[in-house]
């Protein structure tokens, strides 16, 4: 039992919880910000301005095609090298994942708005609704209902992908786990701590993501009904 | 005159759709606008509530000019309180139940209280025989029921004039009747209506006046009796299948 290192995990449990908290904090803040920003971007992507569309489209593709890890490096090391400022690594993580999520959600919102029949707008207009009222009472509730399953899906991907932030030194749960593994090995080279720790991590991610996945399936059924 | 249309012109990308349209609508009058597909009758309706911008001409409502350059979206919102419209595709808001669909305009545009708007909405629903559907969602209704709700939605704004754009064209035959019955009821109450339709028998019964359009112009304005028995233009005779004295 000693070799499995369960006692080490129990002993360092507060630190692991801190790591989980960092993971969840980055994911949650990024998710909330990207929903707000995504709605705005999505509406902006239905604009008639070719320049605006071109710029947004470029960013969308950039965030889709370029791996978030590279964006993390670009923002973290780039800001230090080019502008000689050191941005807090948690802030960089939140920024990168917010932009990543915002463009994903923006594209969902855009495709939903453009798929709505023109008569939905016209019947709102014919009732005398102002443009803002049309967005608040007619379009937004439908956009939210229709995109929620995809947003929940994005949340699970976000939580998994935030693991990458350990590469710019953010003490999220994987980073914490690895340092515990290293310390344990130093004291006891025969320990099986890495097996136990990664099993533990697997369970942690499963406990966080599986309910979200079930929630997504439930929502999808509800929306399609 | 409730509504006066003078020399209205409209084109899309250099393609003239409406050429010099003029007509008047008296209060309480029901006018059916007939004509072949593409003759411009739907576009004409859409010009009257600002869904299409007109190129030139004037539209007057209650002796106030409602068209012209520089008319803003806000201006049209005001006009649309008085000119209601019901569409072929009925487009109820899918995320709202029947009652909320009807009370949205009165509550948000006219700032009436929820109780008052609901009370009137329920009265309208009762009149079209859909009181028991007040909490249903649009997806649970048949096409004819949706269209009747859409009519209630327009009526709850207490418009001075109501525009009907081929409201039965997307419906199964047995549902056409239930919608037409509602419109006939509105005529009996004295509501002013402009009705674009392909239902000839209905137009004959319900309208005070027939406007027959051809290629973006008004080819004939006549009483229903005269129009359906002896239209004055050759084109209208063809349209009504009168030239060979045969009926299908």
From TrEMBL, chain A:
Transmembrane segments: 20-44, 65-84, 90-113, 192-212
Location of the protein in the cell: Cell membrane
Keyword Transferase: no
Superkingdom of the source species: Bacteria
Membrane topology of this protein: Multi-pass membrane protein
Keywords: Cell membrane, Membrane, Transmembrane, Transmembrane helix, Transport
A molecular-function term among this protein's GO annotations: transmembrane transporter activity
UniProt xrefs under InterPro entries: AA_ABC_transptr_permease_3TM, ArtM/GltK/GlnP/TcyL/YhdX-like, MetI-like, MetI-like_sf
An annotated GO BP: amino acid transport
The protein, known as: Polar amino acid transport system permease protein
Gene3D superfamilies assigned to the protein according to its UniProt record, in alphabetical order: MetI-like
Family: Belongs to the binding-protein-dependent transport system permease family.
Domain ABC transmembrane type-1: 20-216
Pfam families: BPD_transp_1 (PF00528)
Biological classification of the source: Bacteria, Bacillati, Bacillota, Clostridia, Eubacteriales
Organism expressing this protein natively: Sporobacter termitidis DSM 10068
One Gene Ontology cellular component: ATP-binding cassette (ABC) transporter complex
SUPFAM superfamilies: MetI-like
Automatic annotation (TrEMBL), chain B:
Source species, domain of life: Bacteria
UniProt KW keywords: ATP-binding, Nucleotide-binding, Transport
GO molecular function, one term: ATP hydrolysis activity
All residue ranges annotated as the ABC transporter domain in the record: 3-240
Pfam family, one: ABC_tran
InterPro entries with a match to the protein in the record: AAA+_ATPase (IPR003593), ABC_ATPase_HisP-typ (IPR030679), ABC_transporter-like_ATP-bd (IPR003439), ABC_transporter-like_CS (IPR017871), MetN_ABC_transporter-like (IPR050086), P-loop_NTPase (IPR027417)
Gene3D superfamilies given in the database record: P-loop containing nucleotide triphosphate hydrolases (3.40.50.300)
Cell inner membrane found in the keyword field: no
Family per record: Belongs to the ABC transporter superfamily.
Protein name: Amino acid ABC transporter ATP-binding protein, PAAT family (TC 3.A.1.3.-)
Source organism: Sporobacter termitidis DSM 10068
């Amino acid at each position: 039992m000693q070799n499995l290192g369960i006692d080490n995990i129990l002993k360092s449990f507060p630190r692991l919880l801190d790591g989980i908290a960092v993971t969840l904090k980055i994911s949650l803040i990024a998710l909330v910000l990207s929903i707000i920003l995504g709605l705005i971007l999505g509406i902006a992507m239905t604009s008639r301005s070719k320049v605006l569309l071109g710029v947004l489209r470029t960013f969308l593709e950039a965030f889709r095609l370029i791996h978030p890890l590279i964006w993390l490096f670009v923002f973290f090391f780039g800001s230090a090298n080019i502008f000689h400022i050191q941005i807090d690594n948690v802030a960089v993580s939140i920024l990168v994942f917010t932009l990543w999520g915002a463009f994903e959600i923006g594209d969902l919102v855009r495709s939903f708005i453009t798929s709505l029949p023109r008569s939905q707008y016209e019947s709102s207009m014919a009732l005398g609704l102002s443009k803002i009222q049309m967005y608040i009472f007619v379009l937004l509730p439908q956009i939210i209902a229709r995109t929620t399953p995809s947003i929940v899906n994005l949340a699970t991907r976000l939580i998994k992908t935030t693991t990458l932030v350990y590469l710019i030194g953010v003490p999220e749960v994987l980073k914490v786990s690895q340092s515990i593994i290293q310390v344990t090995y130093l004291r006891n080279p025969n320990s099986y701590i890495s097996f136990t720790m990664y099993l533990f991590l697997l369970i942690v991610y499963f406990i966080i993501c599986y309910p979200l996945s079930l929630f997504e399936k439930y929502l999808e059924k509800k929306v399609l009904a | 005159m409730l509504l006066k249309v003078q020399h209205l012109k409209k084109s899309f990308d250099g393609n003239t759709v409406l050429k010099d349209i003029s007509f008047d609508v008296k209060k309480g009058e029901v006018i059916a606008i007939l004509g072949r597909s593409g003759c411009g009758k739907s576009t004409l309706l859409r010009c009257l509530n600002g869904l299409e911008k007109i190129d030139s001409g004037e539209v007057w409502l209650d002796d106030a000019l409602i068209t012209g350059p520089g008319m803003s979206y806000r201006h049209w919102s005001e006009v649309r309180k008085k000119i209601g419209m019901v569409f072929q595709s009925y487009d109820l808001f899918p995320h709202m139940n029947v009652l909320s669909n009807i009370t949205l305009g009165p509550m948000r545009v006219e700032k009436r209280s929820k109780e008052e708007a609901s009370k009137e909405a329920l009265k309208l629903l009762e009149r079209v025989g859909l009181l028991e559907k007040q909490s249903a969602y649009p997806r649970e209704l048949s096409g004819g029921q949706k269209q009747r709700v859409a009519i209630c939605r327009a009526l709850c704004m207490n418009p001075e004039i109501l525009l009907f754009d081929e409201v039965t064209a997307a419906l199964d035959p047995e549902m056409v009747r239930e919608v037409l019955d509602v419109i006939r009821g509105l005529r009996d109450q004295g509501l002013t209506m402009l009705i674009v339709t392909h239902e000839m028998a209905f137009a004959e019964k319900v309208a005070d006046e027939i406007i027959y359009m051809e290629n973006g112009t008004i080819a004939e304005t006549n009483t229903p009796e005269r129009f359906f028995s002896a239209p004055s233009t050759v084109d209208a005779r063809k349209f009504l299948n009168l030239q060979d004295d045969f009926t299908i």
